[in-house]
Amino acid sequence: MNKTFDDLIAGLNGKPMKKVAVAVAQDSAVLEAVQAAKERGIANAVLVGDETKIREIASSLNMNINDFELIHVADDYEAALSAVKLVHDGKADMYMKGLIDTKGFLKSVLDKDVGLRTGSALSHVCVFDIEGIDKLLFLTDVAFIPYPTLEDKVNIIKNTLEITSACGIEQPKIAPLAAVEVVNPKMPATVEAAELTQMYKDGQLTGCIVDGPLSLDLAIDPDAAAHKGATDRDIQGDADILLFPDIHAGNLVYKALVHTARVKNGNIITGTKAPVILTSRSDDFECKVNSIALGAVVSEAMKNN
């Protein structure tokens, strides 16, 4: 089982280096990340965008742009289509957002001719390596589906299981979160969490353990679970996947961790034919490198399967 991002990256040693296609690559933070990813043996990159701007930024970073394949496409959306087509056609292994708005980037992902749609719903997974927690923690969905329905949550679980499997985690424990750990008809998140748990018990959700509703402390803190007497729960502070009731809860926890705790993290879009790397402009350099590494790990698993 991989417990840290260092473990994930070490697992790529000896494997053919993956290739990431970057849409609208004239972005200093992204160029720094792809350079670091190549230097660390994680992935190479194809840079698609305005060649003049890419070269100018690379020069300011003392980056040898000749180490990378460069494809000139001046228009942002056309550049995105060119980049995603490389992945669609098998000429690259994963797709990454550069200096393009998220709406345009996702539109290219879903393009019917050259995109990466599978017919499944898309969702977002954040993988955290948190000091003090002896495992990787998977948060979903914190950035994509604002108010997931019960059906959406089932799809989110299935998408996330592909990521945990790629990271070497078998039979992960999934905690559908709520403010409390008991069902309250006035709190829909608790009702849906219980329904997901029943679906697991009925064999409709396989390859995992689902136990909800759970409050966050019971999901991730064994001492809190023991103190509250939750000894009859399938999850007692040892959840692998935190399933959030809506984007507000997920995004707040995500940013609280990033800005207050000692963490490493990476982000990925799931439900696509190939890994899609979508990071925020506020995400730091290491997050972007870790996201490329996560994409490489998932790409390798997809190839093997």
- Tell me the span between the first and last alpha carbons: 18 Å
What helical percentage do the residues reach?
40-55%
* Largest sheet entry: 6 strands, mixed
Shape: elongated
Please tally the helical runs, counting DSSP H or I stretches of 4 or more residues.
11
Helix vs. strand class:
alpha/beta
Mean pLDDT: 94
Provide the low-confidence segments as ranges.
none
**Beta-strand percentage range:** 15-25%
Strand order of the largest sheet: 8-7-9-6-5-10
* CA-based gyration radius: 20 Å
Write down how many β-strands occur, each being a DSSP E stretch of 2 or more residues.
Answer: 11
Q: From N to C, what is the helix and strand string? A: HEHEHEHEHEEHEHEHHEHEEH
Keywords:
single chain, alpha/beta, six-stranded mixed beta sheet, five-stranded parallel beta sheet, 41% helix, elongated
Protein architecture, described:
This protein has 305 residues and is of the alpha/beta class. Helix content is 41%, strand content 17%. The protein is built from eleven helices and eleven strands. The chain has helices at 5-10, 28-39, 51-60, 76-88, 102-109, 150-166, 188-201, 216-220, 222-227, 247-260, 285-304; strands at residues 18-23, 43-49, 69-72, 94-97, 123-130, 136-140, 173-176, 209-210, 241-243, 263-270, 276-277. The strands form two sheets. The protein has a six-stranded mixed beta sheet. Strands 3-2-1-4-11 form a five-stranded parallel beta sheet, with helices on both faces. Strand 5 and strand 6 (136-140) form a beta hairpin. Helix 4 packs parallel to helix 5. The longest helix has 20 residues, at 285-304. The chain is elongated and about 60 Å long. The two termini are 18 Å apart. The mean pLDDT is 94.
